[in-house]
Specification:
Blueprint (H helix, E strand, L loop, with lengths): L2 H18 L26 H16 L6 E5 L5 H10 L2 E6 L2 H13 L6 E5 L12 E6 L9 H11 E14 L8 H10 L11 H7 L2 E8 L5 H22 L2 H7 L12 E10 L6
Parallel strand pairs: 1-2, 1-4, 2-3, 4-5
Antiparallel strand pairs: 5-7, 6-7
Helix pairs in contact: 2-3
Bound molecules: S-adenosyl-L-homocysteine (SAH).
The site of S-adenosyl-L-homocysteine has 24 residues, from helix 1, helix 3 and strand 2.
Length: about 280
């Protein structure tokens, strides 16, 4: 794919989230656009708290503090970046291809009293508007799967990271082989949410290495995240459908709504967490 195609994908994703930004006032995940984390089926934690719990697990992994500068690539409406700034005192810059998300995120940061610590701007992950080695840490929470080329997006993240700096991300991966029969079903669901094909868990460390990053941890958290989230979100959505529909353009809502009787659970897809360190010029 050429860089021109990259920006077309970015623009489409930006428009998609621009149309959805109103819905976040009614969002069941609070200011988060990522799955929650539950300790098994008996854990009754609500969607928003479970989503915050996943953010907290990523905050722990990033190991930043006051004086550090963090880049949040694919920042959504800013919930995770604001939480990171509050918890650690680090300075966070968030980028999204959706201008409306950026606006909303800056509003939420100001309302939380961290408008000086968490700052959001429009930017495309495939061509970040930052100098080489200008961040101490980078995270990508549930965003890399919407980018047109994972390897290129990771290389771009590595470029802006200082040597020794840490990257933490979450992503989808193909956990069970997708059968020929199921492939079109899964592809049509992913396409509706502008999500690219899932990654391979086994290939992730090598993909990071080629991007200039040394993988220090990779965890399959599917059982605690996606396996739980889709079902719980479905139940909550069924209750809140009218409120949610009122916040979104009806045409957009019709496009996004699952088809009658469609099952959004995709057991073939897993969810992973990984952390990596930017390798220095002498370390390959
Ligand atoms: N990280 C946030 C949002 C996840 S939703 C959270 O956890 O709450 C995915 C986000 O990635 C959206 O904000 C979307 O605009 C952003 N995104 C997707 N492709 C992008 C790209 N090419 N460049 C920048 N942001 C992108």
């Amino acid at each position: 794919m050429t860089s021109e195609n990259f920006s077309t994908v970015g623009e489409q994703v930006g428009e998609f989230y621009d149309q959805l930004v109103g819905a976040f006032d009614a969002s069941l995940y609070g200011p988060n656009i990522h799955v929650g984390f539950w300790d098994g089926h008996e854990d009754t934690t609500g969607l928003e708290d479970a989503a915050d719990r996943l953010t907290d697990m990523m905050i722990e992994r990033l190991r930043v503090g006051s004086g550090d500068r963090v880049l949040d690539i694919g920042c959504g409406v800013g919930g995770p970046a604001i939480r990171l700034a509050e918890a650690t005192g680090a300075e966070v810059v968030g980028v999204s291809v959706s201008r409306k998300q950026v606006e909303k995120a800056n509003e939420l940061a100001a309302a939380a009293g961290v408008g000086d610590k968490a700052v959001f701007q429009h930017g495309d992950a495939m061509r970040l508007p930052f100098e080489d080695a200008s961040f101490d840490a980078v995270w990508m929470l549930e965003s890399v799967m919407q980018m047109p080329d994972r390897s290129a997006a990771l290389a771009e993240a590595a470029r802006v990271l200082r040597p020794g700096g840490r990257l933490a991300l979450t992503d989808n991966y193909e956990r069970d082989r997708i059968s020929e029969e199921r492939r079109p079903v899964i592809e049509s669901i992913l396409k509706r949410y502008l999500t690219q094909s899932p990654a391979s868990f086994e290939a992730y460390p090598a993909m990071l290495r080629e991007a200039g990053l040394r993988c220090t941890e990779i965890l399959d958290v599917s059982e605690s995240t996606t396996r739980q989230s889709v079902r719980r979100l479905g139940e909550a959505l069924a209750k809140n459908m009218t409120e949610l529909a009122a916040k979104i353009d009806p045409e957009v809502f019709a496009k996004l709504k699952p088809a009658e009787g469609e099952n959004l659970e995709m057991p073939e897809l897993g969810y992973l967490i990984t952390t990596a360190l930017r390798t220095g010029p002498t370390e390959a």
